[in-house]
Amino acid sequence: MTDRPCPCGRGIGYASCCGPLHAGAAAPSAERLMRSRYSAFALGDAPYLLGTWDPATRPRTLELDADVEWKRLFIEGTEAGGPFDTVGVVTFTAIARGPEGRIELRERSRFRRSGGSWVYVDGETPPERRHSM
């Protein structure tokens, strides 16, 4: 069986990319955690999203919209978030298609290292941009 492409867009197969993180491996950087969280959105894996969310900011539940199909992730920049850092920031744009058309979500996400693992803290988003195609 061939390895399907990873939704995060790194250009490698899911089994070598986000698959191990979804199975419990620690992300080596804030960017890799961001990519694995995008893949979890694309695959509908709400438990992974909750499990990689900082307990101080994590919602009690998370319902993913089954009508939204995540198509592409663009990493626009990173600040810190490497193997020797305790905090990091990843700015990205995610492209999706929903019932009303194209969705572009841009976010500046903050991450921190907690117990040796990266967790998502929160993000700043400008007003959502929706375009019909």
TrEMBL record:
Classification via HAMAP family: UPF0225 (MF_00612)
Family per record: Belongs to the UPF0225 family.
Transmembrane domains' residue ranges: none
Protein name as annotated: UPF0225 protein NS354_00405
Organism whose genome encodes this protein: Leucobacter chromiiresistens
Domain (YchJ-like middle NTF2-like): residue spans on this chain: 29-123
Taxon lineage: Bacteria, Bacillati, Actinomycetota, Actinomycetes, Micrococcales
InterPro entries attached to this UniProt entry: NTF2-like_dom_sf, YchJ-like, YchJ-like_M
